[in-house]
Amino acid sequence: MAVEREPMPGSHFRELLSGDSGTLLAAVVAVLAASVVLVGAATAIGVFGMPQVVAIDNHLVGANETTTKVQSQLTVTNPNPFPITLRRADVAHTVFLNGIAVGDGQRSGVSLGPGNSSVDVRTGLENDRIDEWWVTHVRRGERTNLTVDATVESGRLDRSVSRRVTDRTVRTDIISTFNRSETIPVNASRAVVSDPVLYVNETTARWGNVTTNRTVIHTRLRVYNPKTYAVPITGVRYDVGMNDVAVANGSTRDLSAIPPRSHRNVTARLVVDNGRLDEWWVSHVRRNQTTTVRVDYAVSLDLSAYGGQNRTVSPEPIERTIRTDVFGAHGGETKLQFS
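^ that's the sequence the OP posted. Answer follows.
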């Protein structure tokens, strides 16, 4: 009576080796196909997790005439117990200011071990998008929503995952640079009249219309005449510089005389040339996100009635220092700081 025996370990493999090459090739293909199916199924049911960016740390590190350089450190988590190399794709991210894509960065061929990995990416922000962003910033009351979207794509898992990793509000208050409540004397420095001729008791400003090319600022001087006679003002001119970059100017003309011992409001319309803002931005970044705003204004007086001539005098300029932290290392809201 014949006795059935269990095949010896490896006997099927030896049988394949002793058979024709077609049988062996078919077996190998079948094994590989099964592996692919298993990996796909495991990925689908979540056995193999997709890496994703869970945090990002951005720092402005420099700027030239066209590009602002940002050093970004992305924290990427790999939930799998095995390393993943992103051969076919990248770790990438895009920076948005009020929905305007101002720059992006990416890194290819990244190897991710299990758990968290740090991936350094150099990002370039396009300076020519600054004026476009500025329009939205002013229209929204000097408020910007800064967001960063990050994407991880894996060739091994044949998937990509995108998510928002930064969402914060950046606020500024540039218009308050023009606000001043100190009393400033206006001296004619002429023998025909004693100084001061006038006092500027207050300056204020508000945003006007903003377009792609220019931004309007409406200013007001609260002027007091201490004399017992009227003092004619024929004009007021403003010049505004940010880090020595001339960005705005304006004037008012054909003003009437200020009555004796009376206050009058003198208004002027300033126009910001939005095309100069990218040049200012470069200086702001290069000075560690610091800007000195200087507002020079000149008052033209008509002293002919008092034996003098027309005289243009320049009161003390308004000067403020602005510091920002665009990517906001402290909390979800970044505010402009003055000093």
